[in-house]
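Throughout our pipeline, every protein is held as a single compact record rather than as scattered files. The remainder of this section carries one protein's record, kept here as part of the documentation.

===
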Amino acid sequence: MPQALNLRNGTITYDNFFWLLEHADSNPADLLLGEDLLQISFCGGRYLLDAGWYGFGPRGQFGVMLVENQDWEHPLRQEYTREISRLPALLQECIDWLWHTRIAPAEADPRPLLQVVAGIVYNDRGEVLLSSRPAGKAYAGYWEFAGGKVEAGEGELAALRREFAEELGIQIHSAVPWLAKTHSYEHAHVRLRFFRVPADGWRGELQAREGQQWRWQQPGRYDVSPMLPANAALLAALALPTQFSGSLNEGLHAADGFCVLPLHAVNPPPGSRLLADLADLTADTPDDVRRWPLVHSAGDIAAAAAAQAEAAVWPANNATAAEQACAALAEGVPLPLVLLSVNADIAARYAERWLAAGAHAVVQG
């Protein structure tokens, strides 16, 4: 892992920059930075960093533009330059993304796996609660879903309740498991178990008991930054609908107009597509297509997550498949999982169990 960046007056060293390029994707100019594009410009052996909104890269990712001219007064730069105080955090997000998606997965982390819980708390407006990490902790100032480590002999839900009472002064009385992600930070190797807490699942007045900030955010429209690296994919997943109708042949449709169409639908609009086979994850698809493969096992789900699928769909039309899905959900899935059954009896028997175990949605198709 590279040393912490030393950024002063908007400049970084050659060594840090070349490390960045060496560990980038096959196209070193495509680096995911969330909602900002980082522009690094050459200037006499130093680099000027501008954060701006210049457009989308492959698969909807923002990119890093490497600009070799010295046109510091370019109109785009003047219009889109963000405040200099945000640049260190933006660059660190870039390094974190490269490390956790390209390097760490290829090297088994030998450190003990720490069990951590986090809560996605909703209010009556459908907003979710984000809080900043307090001074003195790793990634101080980064925004996250509140939570903390599960103590020895403590259950996950008990840990969630304790952490929210200690950090934010509220009482959690009902929560449903959702996603589980393993993440290698510089300071720890953690397994994060995320719970969704409905608006009527908590009570009390929010308090900043650790000196942190907190803010309500609409899923898909976040205006706090920087985000904790492990939360990037999860933030996007929260904006996905949780109720669908449809079938594998017709696609999945939500009331708000969101749809997941079959891959070979005629004249489909940009959006999400159902993939009939995991092999389709490696096939060429248009840049504006977000992929939802069909899965039939926990291994399939892991492969879909590794290929950065947006979500996965598990067709469970018999009791064996339904029980296998329950077991996979109980272990924790790393991306939103939709259960779909054409068998009305199976759907009726298992829908409640699937949702209670962490399914993102259940569809009778």
Q: What stands out?
A: Residues 87-103 form the longest helix (17 residues). The chain has eight helices and 20 strands. The two ends are 47 Å apart (CA to CA).
